[in-house]
Amino acid sequence: MTTDAKSVLTRYFSAFNAGDKAGMLAELSDDIAHHVNEGQVRRGKVLFSEFCDHMSRCYHETLTEIVVFANEDGTRASAEFVVNGKYLVTDSGLPEAHGQTYVLPAGSFMSLENGKITRVTTYYNLADWIRQVSQ
Questions:
Q1: Phi and psi dihedrals of 14, rounded to 5?
Q2: Threshold 0.90, pTM exceeds
């Protein structure tokens, strides 16, 4: 089961890096709970899809140094990675965008059921990101 969970996350993050929103959505359960860093929980694929659209408009990000972990029964998994990004369009309540680049360590924690991701919780240091884009 651990291998299956790792495979799901590997496909999910590969789709992310390819800009393949449909590929990401294919790895999610219909009732996905998306716990956004510094935000509210979004439930369901529709809200997750809208979040992805917003992020693609404001940021261009690629993840590197991805390391995937999973528990023995494959119900929980995580990934540690580095976000390599470019701030494209000003996001509400954040510093003004003018093409700044940033490199930010981050991690995602996930629950899985029946081969699908049921929860995504992503963490990064917002203060570090603000410092980088404010320079």
A1: -65, -40
A2: yes
